[in-house]
Design goal:
Distance between the termini: 67 Å
Length: 463
Amino acid sequence: MKYDLIVIGSGPGGYIAALQGAHSGLKRVAIVEREALGGVCLNFGCIPTKALLHSAHVCESLRDAAEFGVVVESMYINFPRVIERSREVAASMSKGVLFLLDKAGVEIIHGEAKFLEPNKLEVTNDEERKTLEGTNIIIATGARSREIPQLPIDGKRVIGYRQALTQQEKPESLAVVGSGAIGSELALFYKAMGTEVTIVEALPQLLPLEDEEVSKVVARAFRKAKIKTMAGAKVLGVTIEEEKCLLRVETSKGEEVLRVDQVLSAVGIQANIENLGLETIGVETERGRIKVNDHFQTNVPGVFAIGDVIPTIALAHVASAEAVACVNYILDAAEATGVNYDVVPSCTYTTPEVGSVGLRERQAKEQGIDYIVGNFSFMASGKAAAMAARDGFVKLIFRKDDHVLVGAHIVGASATEMIAELALAMQTGVTAETLHQTIHPHPTLSEAVAEAAAQALGHCLHQ
């Protein structure tokens, strides 16, 4: 059977590509998926993680309720129900993807896809084997937990994010290796559930991709929550002894052994490009990712790739943007535009939350950009005071010559919701003056954006 477009993988890149193709006039569109629709994001990533974190926030609110005049006599955490609810949320979102694909007339084919020729796939499952032909084929197979030699994942004592999201028993103690978004969020969740948590990070700061000032606020909040943090620490290996994990860690003070129930490996991701037959058709790869041009074309005509399998920013919303851009190129190469990777918001759903877009201050220095900074603390925010959420700040980076926004960093309550305004500001070339003069509603946390812009200009009245 021949299709105008076949998409391999149904994550936020794959299913958006299929929908974009179907809604834009491609007559026969199919999507091939070996697991649940929605990919890792909907089933084992973004969505169920946020469901778990909401349970964590409920626990935190109840523990702090007395501060707000509400006395909670006792609290019981039904951990299996917490996990069950997150799976229900994930399942409902997967059903939503099914509904959208069915409505758009996309054919859903379950199974493993493998290239036989550049325009031909073999799809196999437990029941059958079939051959599909596609004028255009998009690879959107996503990624999985990366394993390092000194920390092999066995799924029981040393686990990846999938086991961390689905296990029915809560460990009494947990070491989290890696303090990126996945590691930090799951560390916070398990601590809220009552687990003793230690974070081990090889680089000098937690959330190593974020601005240094932001990372310091999160590290302080973690220590306040009694999460032990070990930055600049290298994992040497792990052994299992008497139902315990003995994690050997090298620190500036020498070797230390952590004795914990489980170790969560959160050291990054690895692209799912094996067993696709890429070697058969000659698709070029580099460092475990598929090489593409600005329009997501591989070196093989008619074969494209998007999302975590290519060397761009591995975020769900980036994969979706790449999907739309890729399909638009297939439809009309002359009119197609690419993806602006300079303006990609990044979010970490810790407490406090982190939202960032554009340049970190260290990057501005490295690039030799002459810049000014505006910084407004939530300590001076009336809304933050009312919420008892005064940790954090808004930090804005502007070019000095024209005051155009080139970087924005928020750490604090609702940071992940507020960052979109600043992504739009960057996308449209907004200046410090415009942000300062834009009336923000009072009382809100978003007032801090206008105040940070004012502070950069030397006009801040509230700090």
